[in-house]
Design brief:
Layout lengths: L14 E5 L3 H13 L4 E4 L2 H7 L5 E6 L7 H10 L6 E5 L4 H9 L4 E4 L4 H13 L8 H9 L6 H11 L4 H8 L3 H15 L4 H10 L4
Parallel strand pairs: 1-2, 1-3, 3-4, 4-5
């Protein structure tokens, strides 16, 4: 059942649609966003949101692990339905494979719990301002590729492992180096590409055709 407290006659008005089975988490995020002047609707399950999704506008903020349909499956379902809504996934159990799966499902951001309030507000505001997604053209893809030109051969190998959804330990095993060395190469990749998070790095790599 949808648990929105801000229903208005204009149900299609842009708002942050918070989907989380944890009542306290929903209430906390609703308070944060409402205090920032954003319209909010909350839902206790992915199924509850899908019941109202056809008229939804704005951004979806969903927990990744929920009973029934999880957040990543929700993102895929929305895409299958042809609903162009940016999705932000929250998780208390962040790992590389999960982040990569989320990005490949079209998720625009991947945020770890407990989240920083300012970072969450910035992510939601940016998502609501995003233009509709589209496939990059050849010129745009080349622009993305240029971000990766400065990578060394080993850094490219580490990047390939990350985009494939492998953990640092698995990448280290595959390359016969230590997990700590993988972390160093990963930091170099982030610096050289200008990516500020794993989700951004994966998104850039996919846009460049490296996924």
């Amino acid at each position: 059942m949808a648990l929105s407290r801000d229903a208005t006659p204009d149900e299609a008005a842009p708002k942050a649609h918070v989907v989380d089975d944890d009542q306290d988490a929903r209430a906390g995020l609703e308070f944060l966003l409402s205090a920032a002047g954003l319209a909010v609707a909350t839902y206790d399950s992915a199924a509850a949101f899908l019941d109202a999704a056809s008229m939804a506008r704005g951004v979806v903020v969903t927990d990744v692990r929920m009973p029934g349909m999880d957040g990543i499956t929700l993102a895929k379902r929305l895409a299958d339905m042809g609903l162009i809504l940016p999705v932000i996934v929250m998780t208390g159990h962040a790992d590389v494979p999960l982040a990569v799966e989320a990005m490949k499902a079209g998720v625009v951001d991947f945020i770890e719990k407990p989240y920083d309030n300012e970072a969450m507000l910035a992510a939601i505001t940016a998502a609501m301002a995003r233009p509709p997604p589209r496939l990059p053209g050849a010129d745009e893809q080349r622009q993305h590729l240029r971000r990766f030109e400065a990578l060394s051969a080993r850094e490219r190998q580490v990047l390939g492992g990350l985009v494939a959804g492998k953990s640092n330990k698995v990448i280290a095993y595959d390359l016969a180096i230590s997990p700590r060395t993988v972390e160093i190469y990963r930091a170099h990749v982030m610096t050289k590409t200008g990516a500020h998070s794993l989700s951004e790095l994966v998104r850039l790599a996919l846009a460049a055709g490296l996924g």
